[in-house]
Amino acid sequence: MNKRSIDIDMQEIYFAGGCFWGTEHFFKQIEGVIHTETGFANGKAEITNPTYEQVYTDQTGYAETVRVRYDEKKVSLAFLVRMFFAAIDPLSINKQGHDEGTRYRTGVYYTSENQKAVIVKVFAEKQCKYEETLAVELLPLFNYYPADEYHQDYLDKHPDGYCHLPLSLFSWAKQQKPQ
């Protein structure tokens, strides 16, 4: 085991923030995020390892999701969830930017009760800022399948590619100091 692996206390959390190309690129900018991966989460159990084409039909129940692996010694889960809220419209149902459909719904999918407790606190903090109920799912991760290679690191491979997020948001995320 090398020194780097000893120093990293790796955790993971799953964010559905509309089109996963922009959501992935956004999280890659945050200090303490070690790895991101685009995929599909919380769909119908009988549909395993769905393709992008299947999910795009909105018949699978899957949401475009980004798995975020992070070093909790460098960035807290609460900070990541607050950053997520900065990148989404939390009142929009099944729509972010120009992208519409259940595959573009927003959500935070946790893998432990400890994560849930932290996320619930941030959700409550954010809810206080709105009269309407947040339209962001807060659920355990039921299932997750990585998207194919074409969708991984899409905006790195295609810097001028489509993104529902403003480019200024990426530089803003890079400038934020984790708490």
The count of strands amounts to 8
Pattern of helices and strands = HEHEHEHEEEHEEHH
> What structural class results from the helix and strand content?
alpha+beta
CATH level-two architecture: 2-Layer Sandwich
Mean pLDDT: 95
In DSSP terms (H or I, runs of 4 or more residues), the helix count works out at 7
Q: Distance between termini?
A: 28 Å
* Major sheet strand order: 7-6-1-3-2-8
Query: For the CA atoms, what is the radius of gyration?
Result: 16 Å
Task: Please characterize this protein's 3D structure.
This protein is α+β, with helices and mostly antiparallel strands and 179 residues long. The protein has one domain: Peptide Methionine Sulfoxide Reductase, Chain A. The chain has helices spanning 3-7, 20-28, 52-56, 77-86, 113-127, 154-157, 167-175, and strands spanning 10-17, 33-41, 63-71, 95-96, 99-100, 106-110, 136-140, 144-146. Strands 7-6-1-3-2-8 form a 6-stranded mixed sheet, covered by helices on one side. A two-stranded antiparallel ribbon has the order 4-5. Helix 2 packs parallel to helix 7 and helix 4 (77-86) packs across helix 5. It starts with a helix and ends with a helix.
Secondary structure layout plus pairing:
Layout: H1 3-7, E1 10-17, H2 20-28, E2 33-41, H3 52-56, E3 63-71, H4 77-86, E4 95-96, E5 99-100, E6 106-110, H5 113-127, E7 136-140, E8 144-146, H6 154-157, H7 167-175
Parallel strand pairs: 6-7
Antiparallel strand pairs: 1-3, 1-6, 2-3, 2-8, 4-5
Helix pairs in contact: 2-7, 4-5
